[in-house]
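Reopening closed ticket. The problem is back. First fold of the pair:
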Amino acid sequence: MSTPDRDAFDALFQYQEERPAIREAGIAALQRLVPVARRDTGQSGVIGSFLLGLYNGPAFPFDLTRLRALDAGLFDDCVAVLCLDNCPEMEVHEYLPNGDAIWAELRENWG
């Protein structure tokens, strides 16, 4: 028989088991997204704004419906980064070397 407390514990335990794979997939997706965000295309603007929103949502609000403008692979990468940032172990920009400089560039281009 399950109880709400037991169900919550089981879900948390399952999430902790999945966390390394979520982290790996999210960091790989972030490494693919950043070069696109640093270009000058419509998709670049969406991705740049999305990443800024994860970095600081109040300062850089992002409308999730903008993700509909992305190719399927880029959309999937955004979802993977969102999963990575669901229970953040660090700020999203800290997963990358020179993340502070990269996010400063994103702020200049898309902020």
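Second fold of the pair, where the issue appears:
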Amino acid sequence: MIVAAAIWKRETAAKFQNWIDGLDPVDLPHARIMLRAEMVRDAMTDLVDAHALPDCVERTMLIDYVAALAAMFSGIMDSRYLRLRINVIEINACSKFHIDTVTARLICTYRGRATQYGNGAMGEAPGEVYDLPTGSPMILRGTSWGSTAEPGLLHRSPIEGTGETRLVLVLDPIADIEADESDRLVH
């Protein structure tokens, strides 16, 4: 049986959540990079340094959270390389329910309301909409999974009209990298 998604419902430490929620949105780290999974910790350390996040336990927790999810997702997807996006979202970036055109995608919201999801057909809103808990990662099967069966699980950004700032991690496996492309990746 092929499933459309896997959700790890976990509670984020209150101290971490208060810290990340209290940061000025301009200080939140953001980047789009392709790299080997084992390089995520170093890349995140460089990223939080570049955004001058204070050296504290919570900063280390953010780095650890992202690095651990990257390692797990890389293993699950059997993908040595990942596309990592950490986005600061203040506008309605993805308000329509959709399925991504990827093999699979991991999404985890560290600040703000997390992703909404529900079963439905492309182009239609789901009958029931569920809210992923903030801090809980979700792996979604995309349309490029290789199965002829539609995933049927749609998702969207819940930010419309909230005025909040979200911090969202997105990981995609990179299956086919040409030799010349790997030279541009973070090793």
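Update: turned out to be a display glitch only; the data is intact. Helices lie at 14-22, 40-50, 57-77, 179-182. The first strand starts at residue 5 and ends at 7. Please close again.
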